[in-house]
């Protein structure tokens, strides 16, 4: 693999910067992730919405991931060809090869107010509600069985996430209408084309969307999957999870408006 994924106006991705053994089928998947990581940043810089320094995070985020992936697949490849193991353990494909545990926790573009001590250990974000937690920089997990407020229409977070904007998930928790309104008003300062806000209420919530913001997209976590998978307790104060266009958590905010502004100051001009 190369030492840098980008320099000046030149960027490389996929097979142009790392070559894999066929073990695990990680080559194409890794190349797609490279491209996705770079694309949304490049788009913001090209439109004059983000500083060029944002592009430096491409290499910073992907180098560690690719080095780790190459190490895992190389070990498996050598085991398969060694002929020394009589047990089928060398054929095992653990969760680490599912790529769900890839994270950018050490990225300069990640803000985590909930877990300021960044642990780089692989954690499967899709099992977060069962055996772990979700931190800033992790792959954002899905949450099924949510319904739009005052509607029978069901949706999931993966239906809501899109590759052309950030998605701000506002978990109301035990927060009152005033605190929720202030958070949503702060998010409205950013163009709807850049940030889409989603208010997530608990199934037992006693209030709907803030009266001053009737146009806010509001969903009810009827089965509790969103709060469980993002490890937010209903009795907690408002928590904002900002999901990047590439599906990774850019920020875990517990300080409200201040944390939101702090995060976007890392990304936008």
From TrEMBL:
Q: Give the matching InterPro entries.
A: FAD-bd (IPR002938), FAD/NAD-bd_sf (IPR036188), Phe_hydrox_C_dim_dom (IPR012941), RIFMO-like (IPR050641), Thioredoxin-like_sf (IPR036249)
Question: Where does the Phenol hydroxylase-like C-terminal dimerisation domain lie?
Answer: 221-267
In its UniProt record, a GO molecular function of this protein is: FAD binding
- Residues forming the FAD-binding domain are 2-71
Q: Name one Pfam family in it.
A: FAD_binding_3
Q: Does the keyword Plastid apply?
A: no
UniProt keyword annotation of Transit peptide present: no
What's the cofactor? FAD
Per UniProt, the keywords (alphabetical) are: FAD, Flavoprotein, Oxidoreductase
The Swiss-Prot or TrEMBL record describes its family as follows: Belongs to the PheA/TfdB FAD monooxygenase family.
Protein name (Swiss-Prot/TrEMBL): FAD binding domain-containing protein
Organism per entry? Rhodocollybia butyracea
């Amino acid at each position: 693999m190369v030492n840098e994924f980008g320099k000046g106006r030149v960027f490389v991705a996929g097979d142009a910067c790392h070559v894999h053994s066929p073990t695990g089928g990680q080559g194409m998947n890794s190349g797609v992730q490279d491209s996705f990581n770079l694309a949304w940043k490049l788009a913001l810089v090209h439109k004059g919405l983000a500083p060029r320094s944002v592009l430096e995070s491409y290499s910073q985020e992907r180098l560690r991931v690719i080095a780790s992936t190459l190490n895992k697949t190389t070990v498996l490849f050598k085991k398969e060809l060694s002929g020394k193991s009589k047990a089928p353990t060398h054929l095992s494909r653990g969760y680490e090869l599912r790529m769900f545990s890839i994270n950018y926790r050490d990225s300069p573009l990640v803000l985590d107010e909930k877990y300021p001590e960044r642990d780089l250990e692989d954690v499967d974000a899709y099992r977060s509600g069962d055996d772990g937690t979700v931190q800033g920089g992790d792959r954002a997990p899905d949450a099924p069985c949510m319904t739009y407020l005052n509607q029978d229409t069901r949706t999931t977070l993966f239906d809501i996430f899109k590759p052309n904007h950030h998605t701000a998930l506002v978990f109301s928790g035990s927060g009152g209408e005033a605190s929720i309104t202030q958070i949503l008003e702060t998010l409205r300062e950013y163009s709807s084309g850049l940030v889409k806000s989603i208010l997530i209420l608990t199934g037992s919530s006693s209030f709907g969307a803030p009266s001053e913001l009737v146009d806010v997209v509001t969903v009810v976590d009827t089965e509790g999957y969103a709060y469980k998978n993002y490890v937010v307790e209903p009795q907690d104060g408002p928590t904002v999870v900002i999901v990047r266009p590439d599906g990774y958590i850019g920020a875990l905010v517990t300080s409200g408006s201040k944390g939101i502004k702090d995060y976007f100051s890392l990304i936008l001009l």
